[in-house]
């Protein structure tokens, strides 16, 4: 029976952003998880630390899911409803997985086997048994990964299709098992890889997806994919929200999808602010900050969308070595700097950027 389901420098030059002229001095690393001074931080160590995206996904999971209290052993008591596993080297199948992160972490994996710290985190969050979703087909996460999980005692559900677009639909169908869907986000399926534009809108919309159980569907920029069109036609009451500007999803695609609204700014950084203001409309007590331009930054940002959703803090973006004006201004409204939590190691968000976004407003 099927188990119950829960339910670099080149980039900086290419992105038109500006730095605030405020001068800041070096500060100690942020406070650590477990301290009584606000939401948990993602433990990555001192400013010299460089960690893999796989280890960072584990760190995010540890920040989200506290150890079990009481006499039970971790191996006996689950502290997450399920775990989502995506490949660590290509973002395609992970883009839509954020809808599943409301009560479970996203862990990243090599395509041919689980890293030791991933296996340890599975044990810590699920105990000896539980549900694990694999995102993508066997070319993404091989049969060895599934077999290893089954041998460890977990129930495995693979969500996949012939392309990332059909994989996103499979994920949406899984999310629908919980109950009727209210909204769906429509984002670009691909784009230039070198500057992060192919995935940036999916990342910032992913916080909304994780918090409110909103599927993320992917489509080519110039034409609504037939599979997406068919999925939408079967759900006429679902509100369709395009995330990103016309360079990402054209007006023709929005019209073909009968979109109810578009959330967009003049660039990915202002689109992230628009998502914050229009889709995550609770009081913004703080922000989660991710790199939105490094080609590999998605692997740090996507697993952290569930973390941001837990806090109901929007995810804003910085560029490689640069703080966009839109991000600086959004975190400094009413003359008071909002608290910030950072995802990615110090190659993704530098110590100077962190210091600036924790400093008083100019």
In DSSP terms, counting alpha (H) and pi (I) runs of 4 or more, how many helices?
13
Unreliable residue runs: 1-36
Strand percent estimate = 5-15%
**Coarse shape:** globular
How far the N terminus sits from the C terminus, by CA atoms, comes to 60 Å
Q: Main sheet, how many strands, which sense, barrel?
A: 4 strands, parallel
Rg from C-alpha positions? Answer: 19 Å
Strands in their spatial order, largest beta sheet: 2-1-3-4
Q: Which series of helices and strands comes N to C?
A: HHEEHEHEHEHEHEHEHEHHEHEH
The total of beta strands comes to 11
What percent of residues adopt helix (DSSP H or I)? 25-40%
Can you tell me about this structure?
The chain is an alpha/beta fold. Helices cover 31% and strands 14% of the residues. The strands form three sheets. The protein has a four-stranded parallel sheet. The radius of gyration is 19 Å and the shape is globular. The model is unreliable at 1-36 (pLDDT under 50).
């Amino acid at each position: 029976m099927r188990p119950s389901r829960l339910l670099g420098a080149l980039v900086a030059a290419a992105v038109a952003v500006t730095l605030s002229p405020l001068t800041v001095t070096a500060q100690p690393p942020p406070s650590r998880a477990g301290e009584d001074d606000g939401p948990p931080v993602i433990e990555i160590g001192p400013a010299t630390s460089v960690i893999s995206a796989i280890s960072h996904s584990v760190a995010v999971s540890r920040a989200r899911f506290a150890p079990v209290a009481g006499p039970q052993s971790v191996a006996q008591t689950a502290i997450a409803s399920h775990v989502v596993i995506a490949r660590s080297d290509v973002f395609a199948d992970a883009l839509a997985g954020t809808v599943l992160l409301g009560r479970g972490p996203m862990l990243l994996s090599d395509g041919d086997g689980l890293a030791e710290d991933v296996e340890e985190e599975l044990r810590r969050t699920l105990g000896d048994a539980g549900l694990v979703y694999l995102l993508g087909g066997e070319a993404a996460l091989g049969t060895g990964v599934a077999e290893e999980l089954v041998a460890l005692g977990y129930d495995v559900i693979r969500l996949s299709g012939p392309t990332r677009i059909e994989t996103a639909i499979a994920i949406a169908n899984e999310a629908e098992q919980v109950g009727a869907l209210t909204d769906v986000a429509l984002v670009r399926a691909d784009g230039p890889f070198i500057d992060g534009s192919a995935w940036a809108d999916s990342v910032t919309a992913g916080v909304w997806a994780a918090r409110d159980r909103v599927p993320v569907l992917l489509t080519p920029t110039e034409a609504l994919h037939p599979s997406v069109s068919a999925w939408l036609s079967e759900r006429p009451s679902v509100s369709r929200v395009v995330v990103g500007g016309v360079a990402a999803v054209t007006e023709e695609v929005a019209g073909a999808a009968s979109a109810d609204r578009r959330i967009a700014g003049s660039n990915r950084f202002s689109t992230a602010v628009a998502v914050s203001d229009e889709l995550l409309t609770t009081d913004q007590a703080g922000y989660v900050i991710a790199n939105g331009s490094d080609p590999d930054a998605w692997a740090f940002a996507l697993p952290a969308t569930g973390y941001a959703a837990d806090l109901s803090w929007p995810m804003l973006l910085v560029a490689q070595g640069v703080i966009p004006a839109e991000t600086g201004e959004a975190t400094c409204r009413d003359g008071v700097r909002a608290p910030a939590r950072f995802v990615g190691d110090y190659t993704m968000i530098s110590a100077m950027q962190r210091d600036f976004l924790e400093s008083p407003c100019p």
